[in-house]
UniProtKB/TrEMBL annotation:
<dbReference type="GO" id="GO:0016020">
    <property type="term" value="C:membrane"/>
</dbReference>
<dbReference type="InterPro" id="IPR011712">
    <property type="entry name" value="Sig_transdc_His_kin_sub3_dim/P"/>
</dbReference>
<keyword id="KW-0418">Kinase</keyword>
<dbReference type="InterPro" id="IPR050482">
    <property type="entry name" value="Sensor_HK_TwoCompSys"/>
</dbReference>
<keyword id="KW-0808">Transferase</keyword>
<keyword id="KW-0067">ATP-binding</keyword>
<dbReference type="Pfam" id="PF07730">
    <property type="entry name" value="HisKA_3"/>
</dbReference>
<keyword id="KW-0547">Nucleotide-binding</keyword>
<feature type="domain" description="Signal transduction histidine kinase subgroup 3 dimerisation and phosphoacceptor">
    <location>
        <begin position="6"/>
        <end position="66"/>
    </location>
</feature>
<dbReference type="GO" id="GO:0005524">
    <property type="term" value="F:ATP binding"/>
</dbReference>
<dbReference type="InterPro" id="IPR036890">
    <property type="entry name" value="HATPase_C_sf"/>
</dbReference>
<dbReference type="GO" id="GO:0046983">
    <property type="term" value="F:protein dimerization activity"/>
</dbReference>
<keyword id="KW-0597">Phosphoprotein</keyword>
<dbReference type="GO" id="GO:0000155">
    <property type="term" value="F:phosphorelay sensor kinase activity"/>
</dbReference>
<protein>
    <recommendedName>
        <fullName>histidine kinase</fullName>
        <ecNumber>2.7.13.3</ecNumber>
    </recommendedName>
</protein>
Length: 191
C-alpha cells in the first residue's frame, strides 16, 4: 500500500471514527456531571475510561498508518515488543527477504494484534517469533507461554482481523497448545 493511500485512509478515519469517538466521550462526561446516582456515575466513569483507552489506541494506530516508516521490519517489531514493556527476553528470527513490502505491512499488523492480545491476557515468560523459508513458501511461528486466555476465541474481532489479513496474503492461520505454549502458525504457499 502506497504512503499516499495510507495517509488518505488515516485522514478519513481521523475525520470520521476518531472524531465521533471523541464526541461520544464528551457526551459521557456530560452524563457523569449531571447524574447524581453514585452507582451510575461509577459505571459511566468506567465507560469513559474505556472510551479514552480506545481513542488513545486509535490515535496511535492512525499515527502508525500515517507516518512513513523507513525502519526495517525487525526494528519495528523489536520496538513494538519494547513499547509493550514485556518483562522477559524475546527471541526474534525474521528472514525479511521472503517478504514484499505489502506482505511485511500485513504481517506486522498481525503480529501487533498477537502481541497486544498476549500483553493483555497472557502473563508470558517467553516469546519466540520466527519467519522461515519452507519448501513451498514461508512460515511465521509465534510461540508464547502463559495463560490459555491468549488464544483467540472464534468470532472475536482480533481473530477475525488476523484471518482477514491472512486471506489477503493467501496464507493459512492455525493455533494450537503444545507443552504449555500457544503456537500460532501463519503459512504461505508460493504460487
Amino acid at each position: 500500500m502506497s504512503q499516499q493511500v495510507r495517509q488518505e485512509i488515516a485522514r478519513d478515519l481521523h475525520d470520521g471514527f476518531a472524531q465521533e469517538l471523541t464526541l461520544i466521550g464528551y457526551e459521557v462526561d456530560s452524563l457523569i456531571a449531571t447524574n447524581t446516582d453514585v452507582g451510575v456515575r461509577a459505571d459511566l466513569r468506567q465507560l469513559r475510561f474505556q472510551i479514552s483507552s480506545l481513542l488513545d489506541r486509535t490515535r496511535q494506530e492512525l499515527f502508525s498508518l500515517h507516518k512513513i516508516s523507513a525502519e526495517p521490519f525487525e526494528v519495528r517489531l523489536a520496538a513494538l515488543i519494547d513499547e509493550l514493556r514485556f518483562p522477559f527476553q524475546s527471541s526474534l528470527s525474521i528472514d525479511t527477504s521472503l517478504l514484499t513490502d505489502g506482505t511485511q505491512d500485513e504481517l506486522f499488523a498481525i503480529l501487533r494484534e498477537l502481541l497486544t492480545n498476549l500483553y493483555k491476557h497472557g502473563n508470558p515468560t517467553q516469546l519466540t517469533i520466527a519467519l522461515e523459508s519452507t519448501t513451498t513458501g514461508w512460515q511465521l511461528t509465534f510461540a508464547a507461554d502463559g495463560s490459555e486466555e491468549i488464544s483467540f476465541k472464534p468470532g472475536h474481532f482480533g481473530l477475525i482481523g488476523i484471518q482477514e489479513r491472512c486471506a489477503k496474503l493467501n496464507a493459512d492461520f492455525h493455533q494450537e497448545m503444545r507443552d504449555d505454549l500457544l503456537l500460532t502458525f501463519i503459512t504461505k504457499v508460493s504460487k
